[in-house]
Amino acid sequence: MKILLALMPLTLALAAPARDFFVYFGTYTNALSRGIYVSRLESGTGRLSAPELAAETPNPSYLAIAPTGKFLYAANEVGSSGGGEAGLVSAFAIDQKTGRLALLDQKSSGGAWPCHLSVDATGAALLVANYDAGSVKSFQLRDDGGLGAEGSFVRHHGASVNASRQTGPHAHCIIPDPANRFALACDLGTDKVMVYRLNSAAGTLTDASVATLPPGSGPRHLAFSDNGKFVHVLNEMGCTLSTFGWDSRAGQMAPVETVSALPPEVPVQPGFTAAEIVVAGKFVYVTIRGHDSVGVFSIEARTGRLRYRQNLPTGGQVPRGLGVDPTGHWLLVGNQNSHTVTEFAINPRTGLLAPTGQSLNIGSPVDVKFVACHR
Q1: Would you state the pLDDT for residue 18?
Q2: 275: buried, middle or exposed (CB in 10 Å: 19+, 13-18, 0-12)?
Q3: DSSP per-residue codes, 2-42
Q4: 193-244 pLDDT, tens per residue?
Q5: Is residue 316's pLDDT more than 50?
Q6: Which fold has domain 2-372?
Q7: Beta strand pairing status for 171-176 and 230-235?
Q8: Bridge partners of residue 280, in order along the sequence
């Protein structure tokens, strides 16, 4: 019986309509990595092709895909460029047949060590978070995918209780809300989520509201529930998940609960830090470094509260980004320090994971993004 249950997620995935996707991996460049890598996923079987270098570029740690699937954007996580103390953002055109990337544009991110970026729902604006500078910046995007006029630049202010990591602001992500009216930015250094009103056509951000996390939480990344009613914030330092109700008209967050991102029997220990969060349907998936695991939580649709379901080893060291393919049947995790990407099959009914035994060798993988292939 146990064997049959273990095989069930894979069996269900095999019944899914077959379609191929390019899988892009952002990395930290070093002796084992030269930039952004691409593999091809057969969604009907979960088979992954050997990764190839899609574009050579420095430290493309985090990636974003345009709504059309034609363009890819990368946060080049460096501390200086062009003689200034700022990182870079790069725009690429995606070859729809091969998956290779052609550089379109590259500009300053406005601050040192940019670590996250996103594209609004219309494809008109690019939003960037600069970790070391504690700032966010927006750009207009051209029809050809290139970086257009600079929109807004906002520097965060403040600090929090952790004397080693929270002496100043550290913007860690910025994401548009589902209605595309606002953009939410996690700031690890101040234990706050800043909410900005988003004018996507002009590519601008203006202050709207602020939500505060428990002291020492270190909000890192966030994701919206599929119904758009809740925001789930992953706190890096506290290894917790904080859920908020989301008012899409006023742009305000109302606290619901904070729960551990670890299994119930596992306390937070030195070296444990939460890394990534993804919402897929009724489920939340998170990675925890140090514990080197991926956790699964179900979402209660009416209240937004989370219920712990599962935690599994990621098969590598220091898991960072994770991604769920568009069919909802495969989950990939990048293990930064062991230079591997591990695949799991998802049971679409329960959300539970089962290792497929398949992995890729990629130097220092950090982020995972999917784009539909065109034959």
Answers
A1: 63
A2: buried
A3: HHHHHHHHHHHHHTSPP-EEEEEEEE--BTTB-EEEEEEEE
A4: 999 999 999 999 999 999 999 999 999 999 999 999 999 999 999 999 999 9
A5: yes
A6: Methylamine Dehydrogenase; Chain H (2.130.10)
A7: unpaired
A8: 283
Q: What does the longest C-alpha to C-alpha distance in the chain come to?
A: 63
Residue 365: half-sphere exposure toward Cβ, Cα within 13 Å:
31
Report in angstroms the alpha-carbon separations of 156 from 70, 164, 185, 190: 32, 18, 10, 9
For the chain, the domains span 2-372
**In the beta sheet, which residues pair with residue 192?**
187, 212
User: What is the rounded CA–CA span in Å between residue 53 and residue 38?
Assistant: 6
DSSP for 243-301, written as a single string: EEEEETTTTEEEEEEEEESS-TT----TT-EEEEEEEETTEEEEEEETTTEEEEEEE-T
Torsion region of 220: left, alpha or beta (phi above 0 gives left; psi -120 to 50 gives alpha): alpha
The predicted pLDDT at position 8 comes to 37
Best CA proximity match to 271, nearest among 242, 237, 313: 237
Is residue 112 within 8 Å of residue 134, measured between CB atoms? Answer: no
Structure tokens of 319? 């898991």
- 8 A C-beta contact, residue 128 and residue 136: yes
Average per-residue pLDDT in the chain?
Answer: 94
- pLDDT-above-70 percentage for the chain: 94
Residue 375 has pLDDT above 70, yes or no: no
Question: What is residue 195's predicted lDDT score, i.e. its pLDDT?
Answer: 98
Structure token digits, residue 140: 């207009």
Q: What is the pLDDT of residues 147-185, one digit of tens each?
A: 999 999 999 999 999 999 999 999 999 999 999 999 999
| Residues comprising the chain, all counted | 375
